[in-house]
Amino acid sequence: MMLLTNKKGGIYMIKKQEMFDGGCCTGIATIFEGKIYMRKVLGDVQTLIDETDALLLPGKIGIAHTRPMGDHGEYAHPFIADNGKMALVENGTLRDVHQTSRKRNALANMIAESGITFSSLVNDSHEAYPHLKTGETVSVCELEAHIMADYKNKGFSIEEAMVKMMADIYSDIVSVIIHTDSPENIYVTRNSRPMHILSLSDETYIASTQFAFPKEYMHYHTVSLPPLRCSRIFKGGYEVTPYYVEGERIAPLCAETYFKAYQKISKILDGKKGCPLCYDDIENYIYFECSDIWCEPHTLNQCASISYEILFALEREGRLKHI
């Protein structure tokens, strides 16, 4: 989850969401006078507030993130790359890793052999994480940051570098960056994970779910950014750039898709008889059990978008207690 032009508000935006999709690793990066400022911790949003000066970082443009799992502080977002000029955060999953892990491993070793030192080096055997020849693993998200910086240093624009990186690290993700070469903007590229925008006259909020937006704006009109495209976010608005991620087909969302998914999840909720229903319950059920809800053939679906929208609907109905 991320923000633009309201640092303190942004930290509390991710605090609102961590109850069902975050709270294990948390961080924030801002940009001010040509420099990136970053703080992150192993822990939740309150830990970030208590143990760092995150609320005091300079600048009004920033990105923030809370990770729902992991016991490595090194895997907390944001990640810094391009000689300290860029910060990146990402939401997503690495399903079907057997199809892409070999490519990620090759990319990670290419970056390491170029002289880049990964800050997220850990000893972990998890299949989804890129493995170096040393036997260590690194965060996919940090790998994304360094790949994008590599493309940019080869002469591509920020937008071009971002979509090329997203095609290389293809999975169910959305990535967000700030860069000192373009200090008034945030860049978002989403494959299938959602990203919403709330534009006001003097500030713009972006977040993975509508839960995150300040309460006074909860019922304002928001826009969902299109999949497989790079968008530029700026004060008071946004634009979808001409650049897109090549190589996959995203399942489109339609009213029928939402209706079928809501019916299935609502039935499960009724059957749980008061037991809590978390975000992972919903997303995993939609991904593994609801192949019949999609309206058209696809190679990657938008199960996260469906899951968040169902949670938002349940909250409006008064069936969620702690929003």
How large a portion of the residues is in β-strands, by DSSP E? Answer: 15-25%
Overall morphology: globular
How far apart, in Å, are the first and last alpha carbons? 16 Å
Could you list the spans in which at least 5 consecutive residues all have pLDDT below 50?
none
**Proportion in helices:** 25-40%
Strand arrangement, largest sheet?
Answer: 4-5-6-7-11-12
- Based on CA atoms alone, the radius of gyration comes out at 19 Å
Given helix and strand content, the structural type is alpha+beta
Mean residue pLDDT: 85
The largest sheet, given as strand count, sense and whether it forms a barrel, is:
6 strands, antiparallel
**Helical element count?**
8
The sequence of SSEs as H and E is: HEEHEEEHHHEEEEEEEHHH
Count of beta strands: 12
